[in-house]
Design brief:
The chain has about 425 residues and is mainly α. The protein is about 75% helix and about 0% strand. The chain has one domain. Helix 9 runs antiparallel to helix 11 and helix 20 runs antiparallel to helix 22. The termini are far apart. The model has no long low-confidence stretch (mean pLDDT about 90).
Length: about 425
């Protein structure tokens, strides 16, 4: 049974504040001491507390969940899983490292391919699959993997900002603000390309000695990357379906077809296969991320239903800080994204942006994504690369990461603010 608005207004708000703070502190820390709880479990526990203490009825809690966003996310994960199982990603990275004898070309190849694939598929998946193959192939070629791993992770984060399906926070923003896929990408793509060029120049400037120097003589004593036998029939079919999906999203305004339904249709076509069981595809879906979304939708929805953020926004406005302005929005997004991760930050900030403020939504999408490059903890993709590299006896530490992460993020943030400020005045 739903709680009437008057009843909600008369209830004390301290339990809602306590649940919210406890949840976001847990997200910032990444766990609870002496337990195995992760961010997804913490978000779910927050949602359970909202229900247990009757802050929202079960019906109202379900209304807070954006099922189109979840459907879009799961569908794209299914399509990406098919390409992963068919050996497409491994084949791509092995083709890239064939130019290991030309280190400058290899660097730009890693940046271009990882950014391009991340714009269409989850950057986490690209980093997860590319990292071990890059490490093994580069060590066999006598090259230092670290500069190329930095290129992989930073460019995958940057590239994912180019579309509304490149990462989870962009998917959430697209569903919340009902943004046009074509208009967003057409606006943001020049910015992303510029920052990718800066990324490559920055990595080259910092690591050019390590890039040009052989760490060991190339030879057979180095491990050999696992050979893959791509299932080209499955790959061609999946890429064709993905092409149709992109066309449907680009023509969404003409076809009046929501992105989520287009993605679900693509996932349905991918599942119709004589070689791959749907259960195998589902096993590669990041259910942890889905559950993180569900929990946060309910926790943040509870705060929004009681308008607890309104006094904070009014207080900031009285101090001259208006979040609809690009500079404060960018700074707050950058800081929050590196404290609690970018998805929780977007969920928290989206009520502060007017629905019709399209450019502000674009800024939120871009900055929350670029913010993932600041520190090793800024993005799950960063941690995946570090962990996968360690398994291959390659160290990419927190301090090492900051050499590129800090200047790249600060530069990209300043450029983004200037870029959208110019667009606003055109």
């Amino acid at each position: 049974m739903s709680v009437p608005p008057t009843a909600i207004a008369s209830q004390p708000v301290w339990p809602d504040v306590a649940i919210f703070i406890a949840t976001y502190v847990g997200l910032a820390i990444g766990g609870v001491p002496k337990t195995k709880l992760d961010r997804s479990a913490i978000a779910l526990l927050g949602a359970i507390a909202v229900l247990l203490f009757r802050r929202l009825s079960f019906h109202d809690a379900m209304l807070q969940i954006s099922f189109p966003t979840l459907a879009l996310l799961i569908s794209l994960m299914v399509v990406s899983a098919q390409l992963r199982m068919a050996g497409f990603y491994q084949w791509v990275v092995l083709r890239i490292v064939e130019v290991a004898h030309r280190p400058r070309s290899l660097l730009w190849g890693v940046i271009a391919v990882s950014a391009g694939l991340s714009a269409l598929f989850a950057n986490d998946v690209i980093c997860l699959i590319f990292t071990p193959v890059l490490c093994i192939a580069l060590k066999r070629a006598g090259r230092d993997p670290v500069p190329y791993l930095m290129a992989l992770v930073t460019s995958s984060n940057l590239g994912s900002a180019a579309t509304l399906i490149g990462n989870p926070q962009n998917m959430l923003i697209s569903q919340t603000a009902n943004l046009s896929f074509f208009a967003y990408s057409a606006t943001v793509l020049p910015l992303v390309l510029l920052v990718l060029i800066i990324d490559g120049l920055l990595i080259w400037g910092i690591y050019h000695r390590r890039i040009l120097t052989l760490i060991v003589a190339p030879g057979k004593e180095q491990p050999t990357p696992e050979k893959v036998s791509p299932q080209w029939g499955v790959i061609r079919k999946t890429l064709f379906i993905m092409t149709l999906l992109l066309l449907a999203m680009l023509l969404g305004d003409v076809l009046h077809l929501p992105i989520a339904i287009s993605a679900m249709t693509a996932a349905g076509l991918v599942m119709i296969s004589r070689k791959t069981r749907p259960s195998d595809l589902f096993s590669l879906v990041s259910w942890n991320l889905i559950l993180l979304f569900v929990g946060l939708f309910i926790v943040v929805g509870d705060i929004q239903s009681r308008e607890l953020l309104a006094p904070v926004i009014h207080h900031l406005a009285s101090m001259g800080v208006h979040l609809e302005a690009f500079l404060p929005l960018s700074v707050v997004t950058l800081v929050l994204s590196n404290i609690v991760n970018n998805v929780p930050a977007v969920l928290l900030l989206k009520p502060t942006i007017p629905h019709a403020a399209v450019l502000s939504w674009y800024v939120l999408a871009v900055i929350s994504t670029f913010a993932g490059n600041l520190t090793m903890l800024g993005s799950i993709a960063n941690l995946l690369v570090s962990e996968q590299a360690r398994a291959q006896h390659v160290r990419l530490g927190y301090v090492e990461y900051l050499k590129v992460g800090v200047p790249l993020t600060l530069l990209s943030t300043v450029i983004t603010i200037g870029y959208f400020t110019c667009l606003r005045h055109m």
